[in-house]
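Appendix B. Raw example, untouched.
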Amino acid sequence: MTDSHNESPNELGDIVSVATGAGTFSTLVAAVSAAGLVDTLQGEGPFTVFAPSDDAFAALPDGLVEALLVEENREVLTKVLTYHVVPGKVMAADVATGDVASVEGSTIAVSVGDTVTLNGSATVTATDVLASNGVIHVIDAVILPPGVDAAALLA
């Protein structure tokens, strides 16, 4: 848990401004912008965002981020990004093992143990980064929704 619980929501920026200000989500912010999702994530919410760090994006196969950012792949990029968003404000203390519906429409398999993992591949590395319209949990890998074939984007 962070110490930011004592801040009033009026003092916090929205999810996009908090992510921008953190300095470790420049790829995510660029992707949100390329997908046209800035206004959505600046909206009322509340949203819970499992935010891949810049290192998580850097770990993707060479060329994949660039391929996702081109206009003809905007629909796929939107699916990938909205798969990292869950409706509502879910604080770390409220996370439980099970399938959680994403804004994209598919479910994310959440496993709570010594660490919290998503789909068995991404680990939550920081929790409860508060924003005026939700909360961010930092993850160390990009998760892909069912039906998104990363290799096909590189072909």
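End of appendix B.
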